[in-house]
Amino acid sequence: MERKIIISVERQEKRIAIIDNGSLEQYFCERPDHTRLMGNIYKAKVESVVSGIQAAFINLGLKKNGFLYITDITKPLADYKEIIEEEAEELEPTRFKEDVSIQDVLRPNQEVLVQVVKDNISTKGPRLTTNISLPGRYLVLMPYQKCFGISKRIHNQEERERLRSIIKDFRLPRGAGLIVRTFAEDASKKELIRDFKYLMHLLKRINHNSKRQSSPALIHQEYDLISRVIRDYFSEDVETLIVDDKKEFVRISHFLKFLTPDLKSKLSFYAGKKPLFEEYNLEDSIERMHKRNVKLKSGGYIIIEPTESLISIDVNTGRFVKKGSLEETAFITNKEAAVEISRQLKLRDLGGIIIIDFIDMPQRHQRQKIFRLLLEALRSDRAKTKVLPVSDLGVLEMTRQRVGKSLESASSQTCCYCGGKGLVKSISTIAIEALRGIKKFLRKTENKELSVFLHPKVASYIFNQQRQEFTFLEEEYGAKINIEPDANQHLEDIRITKGFNGAQKDNRDFA
Question: What is the pTM (predicted TM-score) of this model?
Answer without folding.
Answer: 0.77
